[in-house]
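Follow-up to my post from last week.
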Amino acid sequence: MTSLPLFMLLLGAYFWMRSHQRSAVQSPRPPPFTIEVDSEGVTLRRDTSLKAWLRWEDIGAVRSFKVDCYGYDLIWFAVDSRAEGAGFCVNEEHPQFEELAGAFAARLRGFDLRWFQKVAFPPFETCETLVYKAAEA
Amino acid sequence: MTFKVTALGVGDAFSALHYTSCLLLEASDVALLLDCPHPIRKMLREGTNGRVDVHDIRGVAITHLHADHASGLEGFAYYAHFALGRRTPLLGGPEVLAHAWDGHLAAGMAVLRDADGPRQQTLESFFYPCPVVEGDVLTFGPFAIEARPTHHHIPTFAFKVRAMGKTIGVSGDTRFDPDLIAWLAPADLIIHESNLGPAHTPYESLASLPTQLRARMRVTHLPDAFELDGAITPLRQGERLEL
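User reply:
Got it. Predicted complex:
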């Protein structure tokens, strides 16, 4: 029973440390696209243009991994369409990353709810993990 | 479920027999128009026996802005705006989208008058521009869409569209281009234009392609009087193909 508070404490410390590391080495940049999540799926927009649109049932797989950025690391989602070659990538610097992760957890049946633990630790290792795989159509 | 292609129009710009170039692509309950000539609602109604109308169309991809491919955009957009109250994704090569408003639609759509007077409109008033950049893959619902410039009078793009594990390649209007043929060749179904003049593909050029390629090819955009020799099967208006 004591392990969960300890884990939450470590998680909080981890994010605090990473955010401070990032802000020390990076200047803020606007996100390359906005993410709209609704009951149908995910839409990516850049300014007034539509960059990508996927319904929940169009998502074939979601992979997560880290990239070592020398001093901090960056967690990514790679979202693959069922249509070969299509999809999009987004990393945790996107202001809507957590919203997207929450939507995946809520909308994709079988999405691995322990994805963060599997990908975040140990730090600076890629830890590529298949966090969702759609059933065959 | 399959990837379905319906030929809503197969004629060239001067056709007295057919509607002009337009394909309806359907996969996983998503419908995408590939080109949008006038009268698009009538074409949809006749081509699908009333099964599909503008409200079912989730996106419109445009190869280029010649009227025989794009003259239905205004009617489509006004119907979506006034009758459905929504904007539609407009897919196309960047150069096509860049001219879609000032070079095509603005003359009939730049101003709308409401109770407060005239209001200036833009492309974004009616569409979500959705550029398909050469070398990239656009993710659009169940479709993966690629585009490649062709050689025609004005900026024109060929498309490859994948869904349900199958691919359709559409040449758009173009002079004969072996590189374009090679780009289209992996597709399960290739719909290639043919017509007269230096900016179109002579039928003979397509007829001389390898047999295994021609077997997956349908020819469209032919003059009304053109006499086929059987080397390539013509696409028929109203024909529905399942990939």
